[in-house]
Write a structure and sequence with these properties.
By secondary structure, the protein is mainly α. The chain has two helices and no strands. It is elongated and about 45 Å long.
Length: 57
């Protein structure tokens, strides 16, 4: 369940970031680029949550 929620949040956040940055630059919004950014954010979240950040302290 936490993976699904992470993917949904990554898609929403990357969509907002992509929309704002492309509108500021005057370029068209490209859905594929937004999905690539969402994939990168999802993988980073999975690596941080499961591998790097632990409850050892």
């Amino acid at each position: 369940m936490r993976y699904i929620v992470s993917i949904i949040w990554a898609v929403l956040i990357s969509g907002a970031i992509s929309y704002v940055l492309t509108s500021m630059g005057g370029d068209p919004f490209v859905l594929f680029d937004m999905l690539v950014l969402a994939g990168i954010l999802s993988v980073a979240t999975f690596l941080l949550g499961d591998g790097i950040l632990t409850d050892k302290y």
